[in-house]
Description:
heterodimer; A: 6-stranded mixed β-sheet; B: 7-stranded mixed β-sheet; about 0% helix
Amino acid sequence: xxxxxxxxxxxxxxxxxxxxxxxxxxxxxxxxxxxxxxxxxxxxxxxxxxxxxxxxxxxxxxxxxxxxxxxxxxxxxxxxxxxxxxxxxxxxxxxxxxxxxxxxxxxxxx
Amino acid sequence: xxxxxxxxxxxxxxxxxxxxxxxxxxxxxxxxxxxxxxxxxxxxxxxxxxxxxxxxxxxxxxxxxxxxxxxxxxxxxxxxxxxxxxxxxxxxxxxxxxxxxxxxxxxxxxxxxx
Lengths: 110, 114
């Protein structure tokens, strides 16, 4: 059964304190792994798609990496405006369906 | 990316009533998806709505409880029928983007059932 586990559930960082969020997955053939940001009261905002092990994507202070079993979202020198819930999802081959993790709630303190 | 709007943004409803949620996209899309996000839980796919065909429901979701319409390539509705407090959740629609596999989400409808 396809499954996604995110850790930690919650993370508090000081402004400028870099860290990483983890997304472990089990899927029968990976079509894509997706990272989203979700602010309170809003829908998820698309960040990255990763397709194969070794792939990396960057956007501002965020960098996503992928291995055959997990993905990391690295946050470099975060700012308070990076506070949000970060969601990971996978899509298996031959399906349009996403399987989401429960997310990591990130709080960056000024 | 597509611009997606949902109506209503939030509602408080009484047990036993029904609510219809609308999803409008600013471009024509083949596949539209409806998700539920319960407090503290991940997004769960309810059904996939393709224009011109019956919606495809995921395990645990049935058409009598969550009827869906897809009259054209830019619009869909999800009805939550005979509501109970367990239906209190955020309901999200999403669409596949022009790129490969990405889904883009609407702002969500926050439903509270008393």
